[in-house]
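Appendix B, example 12.
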Amino acid sequence: MNISKRKQGILAIICTIAMIVTSITVYNPREVKADPSATVEGKQYSATVKDRGEWAGFDCQGIFDSARIHFAWGIDVDSNTITASIGETKLKVDGKSARGMYIPLSEVTSLEAGSYDIVINATTVASESAEAKEISATATLKIEVPEETTTRDPSVVVWKNIVGGTGYSYNDNTTVQVVSVQQPEFASEQGIYMTVPGTIESISINGVDSEKYALQGGGAVVYLSGLVKGENTINIKYAGGEATVIIKNENETIYTVSIDGTEKQYKEGATITVPADGQGYYDVTKKLAYAPGTELTVNENMTLKSIKLSVTMTSGASIRLAAPTGLRFQTTVKSGNGIAADEILNSTTVTTGTLITTLDLYEANGKTLTKDSKYNFLDIANNGWFNDGAKTETGKFCGSIIKIQSKNYGRAYIAVGYATIKYSDGSSKTVCADVTENNAKSIAYVAGKVKDSEKFSSYSSDQQNIIMNYINGKEISK
């Protein structure tokens, strides 16, 4: 069969593409492994950071697959400007990106045993706040001929001091690379920078999931404020594995106290005083309330939030139709400042209730009604949240005056809802709703409003009779 030259050309291109595609090898990323060192043809290679200069977060991540020396950093650079060299010799740089690259190990396998400085240069990416500039960092490449060694006894603990952190050391029987005490740009406070072979997923300190760290890829800064014990076990979960390192803190134990989001560090045993205003402070961990001005001894990390309860009355009143019937008032208590109502109102920290008295007594006593009032009133403790038939709403409840005599059907009653905060020292504070005479109602008046409403026709005959008896002044025995 004869094929035209044009068709022959097209066929050649297709065959070439097929050859390229079939020659591509897909690597499973789970098989990629980084090691602090690699031994190739009898020589051991390792690389560590010598000088970061102004290069924030610059780190050597190890040697991957005994073939590539990987580097990463915490700021964006122009990948086209990245260069690496040993003395006057330029090294090949591959896998370049804004935040990392690698040098093929084959670039240095011809070197003799010894220590070499790899100088890496790049230009930062300009931003609104900073112009582009040249930066440089230096890594130390060590090439050694390993001698015959014996297996280390894991029971022998060797503590190594951590660079830049007086009083901090680590047990070197670990796969975690502990670098130094520092505060790179991605960290909010000073800590110990350490790396693992893969992208970090989570960190726990002393067996507890912690927030005392900052991450960037395979590197993390574990904050010094989180190392509150003499020996702190740090467990790091990362893509492809898990690693543990023990950090010894021989300094005075320091704890962090957060009050409404403002953190301060204190020595163990220090005394602090919570602010003396407001409704007090809630200990998020211990689920306790502290009275304003309370003195506390610091012997652990603490998170305190100011208590902000608001108490309001639903306008008007309603008829309680369930036996015993009566006049019902509704109160709503809400919790602010990030303290969930379900948490603080469903604990023993806060109790709620309703104060009810007659309007004439209220007016004769300075138009004030509190738990400390010296005239007659009812104090009805709340024992459950209001359910509208579809759901129960935490913080909403009712208080009723029941078995009202017929001679008092036309007498106006007024109610004040309250929430009482019980503090750890046994004292308490009651927050009451604002209320006015306009909220005072008689049961006859409310019954009349119900009678005139569209909802009245949906009531049972017994319920309608109760409402009509209140309107007509007939005594109700139930």
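The chain has four domains: 32-144, 159-249, 255-306, 309-472. The first strand starts at residue 34 and ends at 35.
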